Amino acid sequence: MFVWAPRAWLPGGWRDNVLLEIAADGCWAAVAVGVGADQAPAGTERLTGSLLPGLVDAHSHAFQRAFAGAAERRESASDDFWSWRDRMYGVALRIGPAELRAVAAQLYVELLRGGYTHVCEFHYLQRDRDGSDYADPLAMSWALADAAADAGIGLTILPVLYERAGFAAPALRDEQRRFRASAVDVFEAARRIGAAARPLVNAGLAIHSLRGADAASIESLRGLAENVAGPIHIHVAEQTAEVDDCLHATGCRPIEWLAKGGPLDARWQLVHATHATPAEIGAVAASGAGIVLCPSTEANLGDGLADLPRWLAAGVPIAIGSDSQATRDWCEELRLLEYGQRLTLRRRNIAAAPEQGVASTAERLWSRVLDGSAAASGLPSWGLMKGSRADALVVDADGDGLLGVVPERVLDALVFSSPQAPWRDVMVAGRWVLRGGRHAASTAIADRCREAMAAIG
After folding, report:
1. Which residues pair with 392 in a beta bridge?
2. For residue 173, which of 86, 106, 97 has the smallest C-alpha distance?
3. How many domains does the chain have?
4. Spatial separation of the C-alpha atoms in residues 283 and 264, rounded to whole Å
């Protein structure tokens, strides 16, 4: 199968007249530049819009889609991350495998509409409502895999090591009972998910946070994963209270502790990394680890702003995530990421780097999160290149935010001009899952989601 695009974003930037061949395994078999539409093989699908790679959503809690928009009122003197978290637990205690599949499938369709073609599930909702094991301990993992299949999106499941409520706590709180998992539990879960070889599904490992797992358990998981190439994700330095607690308990800041302990390498993905010192940023850069920023969730929860200029300058791999599902659109995430910096620094185009030949803020941010996608998801490569999975987005040049925009400004307009529904078509593994902005199963998936959310209450 061949597709031809008048313009496509290849490694290095935009290229004109691009012919792409899709192999039987759903990967790009060949990518050629400078091929006129009339030179394409018979049967080639000729696209009219610019072509971009899909993006990896590197941090998602699918069940929290059922809670999105439900915590935007304040009934007490103050409200912060910790009070939001306690209310979110109520949803976590009520949702079962059937409801999770329904809610996650709806989320995944929304992520496809938002330009994501693969999602990494930071999966700690593992046990039954009373904290006991399901007959199959992976019942909730399979619910996520089934939801991904319903939507047609790629999925990395990251079972989470989670064993205590805080640095000084011996165990989890009762309302956290569904999250309990040891190093052996999560390693075995990841092994089983990988062995199942479900289409478009792979597995990695995760640690909830330094407050959620003690040093011995983290070291045990690191030992189990010594010869495993998949990603290892961890929440870190999201809140100032977390940083203060870590300093009190260990004498180190969270990222400092990870860097000093020596576990960091290119497999590690530090989620949020909001409160990092220049020295910590340097240590992460030296280790090869990446970070996952979640701008809409970090704004929604009042986390703070990451030091984006330093992370960019240090060359640290960056990915983005939808996290709590306050937003399900990567254009909005990149817009908020840049706008937060502008508000703080009172300057414009913070992420642009004309001294490096990148004058476009959107293009620099896009390039960096695209480059961080493979490591975050545990896939061998990512993008419009031979061997990568054939995931792509066809830009709707007639959309409100793009109407009349010259081709070389398309990414600028995608990120900084709204409102818009920018994708005409979306491809995952060589198959169109959205056509004309529509998903073939969207009505049935939405109906099941409504029923599930009514049951959750």
Report:
1. 53, 427
2. 86
3. 2
4. 9
Tokens 């990915």 map to which residue? 319
CATH number at residue 312: 3.20.20.140
pTM of the predicted model as reported, rounded to 2 decimal places: 0.97
The yes-or-no answer on residue 61 being catalytic is no
Catalytic residue among 323, 329, 391, 425: 323
In this structure, what DSSP letter does residue 353 have? B
Of the pLDDT bands very low, low, confident and very high (cuts 50, 70, 90), residue 87 is: confident
Q: What angle do CA 320, 384, 339 make, to 5 degrees?
A: 30
Residue 77 pLDDT greater than 80, yes or no: no
Contact 331, 339 (CB under 8 A): no
Q: Which residues contact 149 (CB under 8 A, 6 or more apart)?
A: 198, 199, 200
Residues 388, 364: one domain? no
pLDDT band for position 71 (50/70/90)? confident
Expressed as residue numbers, the domain containing 289 is 55-377
Closest C-alpha to 71, from 297, 395, 270 = 297
272 noted as active-site residue: yes
Question: Any idea what the CATH number is for the domain that residue 20 is in?
Answer: 2.30.40.10
The torsion angles phi and psi of 156, rounded to 5 degrees, stand at -115, 120
Give, for 270, the enclosing helix (H) or strand (E): strand 268-272
Q: Is residue 6 located within the same domain as residue 152?
A: no
Pick the more confident residue, 185 or 77: 185
* Cα separation, 104 vs 452, whole angstroms: 10
Do 274 and 420 lie in a common domain? no
Rg over alpha carbons for the chain, rounded to the nearest Å, is 21
Torsion (CA) 305, 307, 309, 315 in degrees, nearest 10 = -120
Domain-embedded: residue 455: no
Angle (CA) 224-233-203 rounded to 5° is: 65
For residue 49, report the phi and psi dihedrals to the nearest 5 degrees.
Answer: -105, 165
- Single out the catalytic residue among 123, 208, 272, 439: 272
